[in-house]
Structures are given as C-alpha cells and as structure tokens.
Amino acid sequence: MSDQSPLTPGGEPYRWPRGPDYQTAPRPEAPLPRLPRIHVILFLATVLTTLVAGAMQQGINPLATPWLIYKGIPFSFTLLLILFCHEMGHYLASRWHHLDVTLPYFIPAPPIPFIIGTLGAYIRIRSPIQDKRALMDVGASGPLVGLVVTIPILALGLEFSEVRLIPPGLEEPGGFMLGECLLFKLISWLVVGDLPKNYHIFLHPMAFAGWLGLFVTNLNLIPIGQLDGGHVSYALFGDRSRVIAKIFYGFLLICGLLGWVGWLVWALLLYFMGFFHPQPLHDWLPLDRPRQWIGAITIVVFILTFTPVPMQSF
Is residue 219 predicted with pLDDT exceeding 70? Predict the structure, then answer.
C-alpha cells in the first residue's frame, strides 16, 4: 500500500506530522456521504425479505396468506436494528477519524434457502486508514456497539420464549437446534434459569434475532484479513497478526471438518476476500493503553460468542 499523503481540500499534499503534535494536527475532512438510491432500495428489499423470513418462521405461508406477513415484524425489526447499530458503529468511528466512508449497504437474500432473509450489511471505507489507533477504533466499534444492542434484545426475547419438554426421539423432523455460546448460556441462565432434563427453549423471534446478533459478532471478530477481528488483530500485534491469521484459518478448517460445515464455507470466502491485513499509512504510531484495553475486550467478546457447532438438524 502506498504511503503517500492524501490531498487537502485545496489540493495540496497533506503532511502528517510525527511526534507529540500528531494528535492535535488537523486532518483533511472527508465529505459527508449522500444517501444514494441504491442504499434505500437495498434496505427496503431487506426489510421485505426479513419480514417474509420472520413470518415463515412462525409457520405462515406468505404466498397463501400475504396479509399475515406482519407477524414477521418482531424478527425483522430486531435483526435489522442489530445490523444497523453494528454498521453505524463502524460509520461513526470512521467519521471521527475523517475517513471517506459510505452509509451501510444492506444485503437482502431470499428466505429460501436463507432462513433469515439477509446476508448482513457492510460499509465501504474509500480512504486509507492512517494508523493503528484509527484501525482499532473502526474495527472494534461495530462489534461492541452491536453487542450492546444485542444483549437486551436477546434477554427480552428469552422472556417471551417457551420452555417445552421434548422426550428423546420425538424431535420434529426438519427442525434444527442452535448451538449456545458462553454468553448465550449466561444470559439464558439469568433469564430462564436451569432447565430440567429434556426441556428445551423454543426461541421467540426476538431471541432468535439476538442469537444471530451474537453469531454475527463472532463471525466478524475472526482475526483474519479485513474482518473486524483482522483490524483489531493488526492494531494489537502488527505484522505478527499474519501468524495469528494462519492459526485461526487452520482452526476454522478443523471446526468445519469435525463440526459445522458452514465453517468451511466461511473459510473459502475468507480465502477469496484476502487473507492478510494491509498496513495503515502510518504504521509507526503505537497503540495507546486505552485502545489496548479495547482490543483485549474484543478478544474476550470473541471467546464468549464463539460456538463450535452453531446449528444442527434433527
């Protein structure tokens, strides 16, 4: 990556100072993004697909009874709220560091076979990230802000969920069971309490959206490439993050071979997306202590939200 300075609004080369004046030096202001039509179209399409997905989860056929699509609102609203807050965390951190960044792009998906009606959302950062401090802020802000919203949604959803007895061998064909990360187990224990043997929680749509919020947080915190976890890993460890990326890539392959095949699909996508993280423009600037603590918190969040087998069919 080129280490050339960006241009000021007047067209002159901008000189990034070193030393104690660095933090107070002015930076070129990135233009405020407009709201192109594509953002609106994608968002409205994602609202529709997640509404249909939420209704189908309630056993409704949207083709036969389209007027009942409103039953998908609890799932659609809470899931999109989690995704929106995650991406706005990235967006606001990027704007804080004067980066040229787009508003979120939501990605709709057909409810069949994608039972949640979306492939998530993303933003595009169109200017180079200056240093590790900005890298940490941009990388960690999305997962942490999203998690702050996810936890109360999950807790409230668990309050609305049902606990039912399912004797062994009487599972409903075609159903599936969700894996439980450590954080889900803790919140479930606080809200529902200990479950008797053969009793299971049937998640309310809000609780399912909360579970997805934990899962999405974990996927993004994998320390590979330009995922959020890749940003955090490079900000913390610099070039040593390459070794960490290789280790975790092997870990994903093992989890995919021995547990959930979806990890193999994710590993394949990461391979084509880019394996290693590029250097920021001013790699020499060290990470300060508060951001080191933020990095440590994201590592803990990754551990608490990891599920070896996220889902399995009956």
Answer: yes
Do 163 and 309 have their domain in common? yes
User: What pLDDT, on a 0 to 100 scale, did the predictor assign at position 23?
Assistant: 46
- Residues 298 and 246: their CA atoms lie apart, in Å, by 19
* 6 belongs to a structural domain: no
CA distances from 123 to 12, 68, 90, 100, 262 (A): 28, 33, 8, 11, 24
pLDDT of res. 169? 61
Domain count, the chain: 2
Contact 260, 310 (CB under 8 A): yes
Q: Residue 276: count other Cβ atoms within 10 Å of its Cβ.
A: 15
**CA angle 146–150–156, rounded 5-degree value:** 160
Q: What is the pTM of this model?
A: 0.87
In this prediction, residue 34 carries a pLDDT of 65
SS3 239: helix
Answer whether 305's CB lies under 8 Å from 217's CB. yes
